[in-house]
Amino acid sequence: MSQEEVSLLSRLSDAVLAMDEAETVRLSQELLAQKIDAGRGIEAGLVDGMRRAGDLFEREEYFIPELLICSDAMYAGLRVLQPHLPSGVAERKKGIVVIGVVEGDTHDIGKNLVKIMLETAGFEVVDLGRDVPPAIFVERAESAGAHIIGLSTLMTTTMGAMSEVIRLLDEKQARSRIKVMVGGGPVSQQFANRIGADGYAANASAAVAVATRLRQAPVESRVP
Length: 224
Description:
By secondary structure, the protein is α/β, with parallel strands linked by helices. The chain has nine helices and five strands; from the N terminus they run H-H-H-H-E-H-E-H-E-H-E-H-E-H.
């Protein structure tokens, strides 16, 4: 890799971290003009910048607004670079995650952060949005060939919808194919254990680790 290429990728990463959407787009276009591989630009530039933003978020140096603006810059760069990816890149995805806020709840900032971090980590994410009925989670997971369903809520009154999703999966004998991870303000590891969820994540960064573990372990191997 030439010094010029290293410099360009570093500046692209910095642009994402600096929340500079216009500069991210400009550098992505420059990368293509320099005949640099689009996949390398995504991984070593855009994704690297988003990972650095995630690190700052974990250290409480960045907060939700900064992380969301960084993600806007990253996605703007992706729109430039993704059309230039070679065929077969999708095969490198870690897995498919269907994610949403359960029925009765419209708080989606946490869910949006999890989506960003999962996509940054290489997962394909199907975002169902908010106020999603249990049956829709199951139907969309099956139609998308999803490996994981991610359920979020910030309300204690809607937590029961999470157990209903698991019940429907059991009814369809789909738990060997589709695992369930849960999260949100009132949700805990104890609650996840009680309803039979396969994983619990306290925040967006933890969600990536949980999703990665669920893709590597059989459904029976649940962490208490």
